[in-house]
Amino acid sequence: MGIAENLSQVKDSIAEAAINAGRKAADVDLVAVSKVHTADTIREALVAGQRIFGENRVQEAQGKWPDLKKDFEGVQLHLIGSLQTNKAKDAVELFDVIETVDRPKLARALAKEMEKQGKSLDVYLQINTGEEDQKGGCLPAQADDFIKLCRDELNLSIKGLMCIPPANEEPSMHFAFLRELSKRHNLPCLSMGMSGDFETAIRFGATSVRVGTAVFGTRPKKL
Ligand SMILES: *Cc1c(COP(=O)(O)O)cnc(C)c1O
Question: What atom of ligand 1 comes closest to residue 213's alpha carbon?
Answer without folding.
Answer: 8
